[in-house]
Inverse folding.
């Protein structure tokens, strides 16, 4: 997914670039795309990506705050989980399912937000290494965090994610009718009991 | 998906072939793949496919019984909905969700059954015409029939399908853990309440 040739040697520093220029940011993102797709999300490090880009790690933190933020920018994802998860997990627990359902459906209703998400899904379908990268990011940055905050088993978040992602695929890619044409509010009404049931699960009875 | 060159003229009869040979069946399937991908499932006809293959329509019926059967054979799908749907819709209504969930998970647990299903999904993700063909088949041959038999709104079957298909994707393509490793019985326990709720829906309150 990187426009940068893979043959470029790791860790080569480019002389004469001023830190903090617009070009530096692009250089870090190119290095991030290359490193994430080679090593996966978990094994990639801010330090390694900085070295690959020939910049100081502090500059990476300055631009992207975290490895998650860098992944979001590198893959051109429409939202940063750091911003969204608190919105889902704070507020009344019995309404968390509705907040999550409405957020996913509203976010993916905008084509410019949906396209990078579907592009990642297409890549995961055909490339095992990219599937691993996406799995690590989704698990680490999204599903585990919500599951820990709500104190539910991870598999319940995965079932909820499978339901919502499946609906986005059927609505926008397969275009099943009437699923593709009903309003977001109608879908929220249909899906919220499912999602809320998963989020209500207890650690004692993970699968009930 | 057809190995046959598209330039071959429609309706050309091949002299000297005996009807009913093994080759005739392959010839019909090649014509079916070409016709389905060009016209979609709904607009393709047994008569048109027979003409394309240069055989008598009666021979198509002899080999495949129905247009659905021909699609299943042409796409190398592991099961024919004609065989499966009665098994899902007969028996106690309050257990239909469990029967459907267990069937989908058991069927896709075999790699040779799962691969053609995932191949169709990959194609749908990248090719609008193939997505339309798959949409028409899934709607006509699977979802509408179950929805009509159980007298529930079609959108509820689509939500159930999105849940089950989403789980298959997350288990076998993205390989989210622990979803990818738990037993089919554990997944049946986790997902059945969701699927049963969709199948319990009434026509009066389609989205509740």
């Amino acid at each position: 997914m990187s426009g940068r040739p893979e043959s470029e040697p790791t860790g080569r520093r480019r002389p004469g670039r001023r830190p903090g220029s617009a070009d530096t940011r692009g250089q870090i993102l190119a290095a991030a795309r290359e490193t994430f797709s080679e090593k996966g999300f978990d094994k990639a490090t801010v330090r390694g990506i900085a070295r690959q880009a020939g910049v100081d790690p502090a500059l990476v933190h300055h631009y992207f705050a975290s490895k998650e933020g860098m992944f979001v920018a590198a893959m051109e994802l429409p939202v940063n989980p750091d911003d969204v998860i608190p919105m889902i997990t704070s507020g009344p627990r019995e309404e968390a399912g509705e907040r999550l359902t409405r957020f996913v459906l509203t976010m993916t209703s905008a084509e410019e937000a949906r396209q990078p998400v579907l592009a990642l899904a297409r890549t995961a379908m055909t490339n095992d290494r990219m599937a691993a990268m996406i799995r690590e990011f989704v698990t680490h940055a999204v599903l585990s965090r919500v599951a820990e905050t709500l104190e539910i088993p991870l598999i319940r978040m995965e079932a909820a994610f499978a339901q919502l992602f499946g609906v986005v695929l059927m609505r926008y890619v397969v275009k099943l009718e009437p699923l593709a044409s009903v309003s977001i509010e109608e879908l929220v009404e249909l899906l919220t009991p499912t999602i809320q049931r998963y989020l209500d699960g207890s650690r004692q009875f993970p699968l009930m």
